[in-house]
Amino acid sequence: MINRLTHLPAKMVLKLKQWIHRVFDGTHNHYSCYLPDRLGRFPFFILKLFYSGIKLDENQTAVIEQITKDAIIVYAAKFHNPFELMFFYSRYRQQGLPFPQLAFDYRVYIWQPLSRLVKILLAHIDFFLRNLALPDPYESGFISQELINGRCGYLSLVGRKAFYRRFVKFRTDPLQYLIDLQKTIERPIIIVPQLLFLTKKPPRTQHSLIDVLFGPEHKPGRIRRWVTLFRNPDKVFVETSKPIDLKQYLEPAEVQSKSTEYQALLLRRDLMVQLNRHRQSITGPIIKSREELKESILTRVRFQKFMDEYAEDRDIPMKVVSKKVDAYIEEIAARYNPSVLKIYSAIVGWIIRTIFDGAIINQDALNKVKRISLKGPLVLIPCHKSHIDYLILSYLMYHNNMPCPLIAAGRNLSFWPLGPLFRSGGAFFIRRRFKGAVLYSRVFSEYIYKLLEEGFNIEQFIEGGRSRTGKLLMPKLGLLSILLNAYKEGACKDMIVVPIYIGYDRVLEEKSYLDELEGGKKEPENLRQVIEARKFLKKRYGKIYIQFSDPISLNELLSKFEKPLGEMDSTEQSALCRNLGHRVIHAISRAAVVTPSGLVASAILNCSQNTFSSDHLMSAIETYLRYLATQNATLADTLVYDNFQAIQKVLNSYVQRKFIQPDSTSKKFQSSETTYTINVDKRSNLEYYKNNCVAFFIPASFTALAILEKETSRFSATGLHARYEFLQDFFKYEFAYDVDRTIEDYVQDNLNAFINDGILAFDPHAPDPYAATPAGLRKLNLFSRFLRTYFESYWIVLGFYMQNSYSTIRSRDHIKKLTEAGNEMFKRKEIEHKEAINKVSFQNAVTFFNSRGIKGSENIEKIDFYAEAIKRSINFFYQ
């Protein structure tokens, strides 16, 4: 520019040169894509005020904070959007985080200080006059130098003119530019994908007039964006997706062999897939109408073929078959309505605040589940203790920016008026039995396939129903098998199974559960029960505990098997399904929270007598707590903070509820000298809470009983293996175990725990190195007695088989007769514990004995074998 002013006097030209040099600060690199360190107080105040309502969660910013300090950070968004750019610039700067200053392919003028605008204008005029072209921040090396100097970048993957700029005008591709830069430097370039949400609602296939005029909610126009920001700023939040280390990304040989242009295309595709999957993991998949859902199921080629064969085999007109299919879909399908979830959230939040003392959630584990959900749809499998379970998990997902799952619910819950409400909240209904319903079974399988194909998360209760005993039930594998088949047929690339523990200090349905266990008939769910549920609002039920176990990737699990799923026959696939089911149940039991109520109930019921002292109770609880510490069990927060006060509070509660009664002659209530007597009629209540934590103690119980049954004072670890294996097999329908651990692992683990607590002495030089200490014998009994009730239940069933032939036993009233026999044995004092009379253990015992060929008094040899084994163990409980 100065060179063209030669006609001016030399002195004037010199002064003009000096003035321009001062204006440019010694450089011509002034670009509108660069945002300075400071915008000025007023612009920064406006930005801060404008974006103040948007949520910035610590869990999201932690991802950025963990990036190594020497890395070059480039933030990436899907769409070209100055609104988002200025948010990340202002808020990240305000939070003390690395903030974007180099906005690739952006021209930011409005927020530039006036002095910078002047510099940008003059620099562009000067460059144009000298080169007859506008300056390029890529070609000048400005962007690469600023990135190396520690500035952060910001780029968009999709824009209105991005394709035209790259493929028509052949302008620089920001991703290709970064790849070229990474190849010339040692420092890693970290691309951090960013998402800004204005709503958690999933997109719909059918747009409203507002969507047409102002843009859909997931991609709003400028007016809708501003309206949302000013009216509902609390709806807007940010998610940080998994960063990509460009240096590591380029390392694989198959990537290195490609051209830089191809590498950029590959990187853009992977970033787009990651951002889309991350967005779907928050909002859920696109919501389709019922008509679209039906059409996609009915028009699937394989289902059409099945319908043709079904109609031909049964000589039924195709019209009739189609009508049945339509009716089945109506019976099954959810009518998911995200707009209803906000109302549900308010109601569930009120219930939690009204009748519970809050919820304890393992947030880190939940965040892990959230991250892994990017790989595929989640199959959420919580234990099932209460009807509240349905509400709690959806509520939790909703408030942690995750899509609420579609929930597999029993058809018994489809009654009016709750059925339609449940459907709108995501419930789909399933029959208890599919036997004989070939068409229904196939329609249901196709529906599950469609849900996984669309990307919906699914919640199922693998126990098949609510646990009436307090402990986990063995897995019912029907729905899990259908999910595996859908995965096998390609419904999704991976399927993530998430075992979840949901527990309570006290369950709402306690009374009805115990009535059913003792022979009462389960009353079907109906409107009257809903109306009567208001009585629960008058009581407090303690805390809710929610724990997420490590997710199980089906791809990773299958890599441990010799054959891929597609090559397995039906027998091998059934074995896989059982393996997965037991993994889930065991994972839930390991994630359980040990509550004060469960620990105190265990210590009370495992006393040798119905009367016990406070000192004796505390001694037993301390023994259990020491063992739980060796097992890394999760304790309720009240036990961690002050276990003495927590235990005293539970004792007081049990006294008030008449589970136990303090001795009237005791000098002071709740002193160390206080003695208590168990209310025999309330033992089942205590058994329920004992069973909440029983899974942690079962390996110790098996080991302790195996030790007590030894006829010598000293023993070896190998001498316990056979008995442990027998007990584990005997109670295979009661307790799950880790399928990846051996009997030897379990026995050695428990022997080490017993040595640490002084229960056993160890002499490494002796042939039989283990021996119980005098004090240890009492503690071994404390552990073994966790099995006492179960042995008595199985003794009742075996006694029934001794007295009845196979021909006289009718399966329908089998359990009723067992309950009557148990009550008679209790009256005759052939069993000592009333809680042993329960239908669930009876059914498990029947299943076990039938599997061993015991179906009546004819099987005398097998009956005698198990009778001797049961009596042998029971004798040790009363020593």
- Structural class call reads alpha/beta
How would the global form be characterised? elongated
Total beta strand runs: 22
> How much strand?
5-15%
| CATH C-level class of the largest domain | Alpha Beta
Question: Runs with pLDDT <50, length 5+?
Answer: none
* Backbone CA Rg: 34 Å
Q: Could you describe the 3D structure shown?
A:
- With 879 residues, this protein is of the alpha/beta class.
- It folds into 4 domains: 2-198 and 236-283, Glycerol-3-phosphate (1)-acyltransferase, CATH 3.40.1130; 291-580, Glycerol-3-phosphate (1)-acyltransferase; 593-692, Arc Repressor Mutant, subunit A; 695-879, no CATH class.
- Helices cover 52% and strands 10% of the residues.
- The chain is built from 38 helices and 22 strands.
- Strands 7, 8, 9, 10, 11, 12, 13 and 14 form an 8-stranded mixed beta sheet that branches. Strands 1, 2, 3, 4, 5 and 6 form a 6-stranded mixed beta sheet that branches. Strands 16-19-18 form a 3-stranded antiparallel beta sheet.
- Strand 9 (406-410), helix 20 and strand 10 (427-430) form a beta-alpha-beta unit.
- The radius of gyration is 34 Å and the shape is elongated.
Q: Can you give me a brief rundown of this structure?
A:
With 879 residues, the protein is an alpha/beta fold. The protein has 38 helices and 22 strands.
Q: Which characteristics define this entry?
A:
alpha/beta; single chain; Glycerol-3-phosphate (1)-acyltransferase; Arc Repressor Mutant, subunit A
How is the topology of this model organized?
Blueprint: H1 10-24, H2 41-50, H3 58-65, E1 72-79, H4 82-94, E2 100-103, H5 114-131, H6 142-148, E3 152-158, H7 162-167, H8 174-182, E4 189-197, H9 209-214, H10 222-231, E5 237-240, E6 244-245, H11 246-249, H12 253-256, H13 260-283, H14 290-298, H15 301-314, H16 318-332, H17 338-355, E7 359-361, H18 363-372, E8 378-382, H19 388-398, E9 406-410, H20 418-424, E10 427-430, H21 438-454, E11 458-459, H22 478-488, E12 496-504, H23 510-517, H24 527-532, E13 544-548, E14 552-553, H25 554-558, H26 570-591, E15 593-594, H27 596-605, E16 611-613, H28 614-630, E17 634-635, H29 637-656, E18 660-662, E19 675-678, H30 683-691, H31 694-708, E20 714-715, H32 718-730, H33 743-756, E21 760-762, E22 770-772, H34 774-784, H35 788-803, H36 814-827, H37 839-851, H38 860-877
Parallel strand pairs: 1-3, 1-4, 2-3, 7-13, 8-11, 8-12, 9-10, 9-11, 15-17
Antiparallel strand pairs: 4-5, 4-6, 12-13, 12-14, 16-19, 18-19, 20-22, 21-22
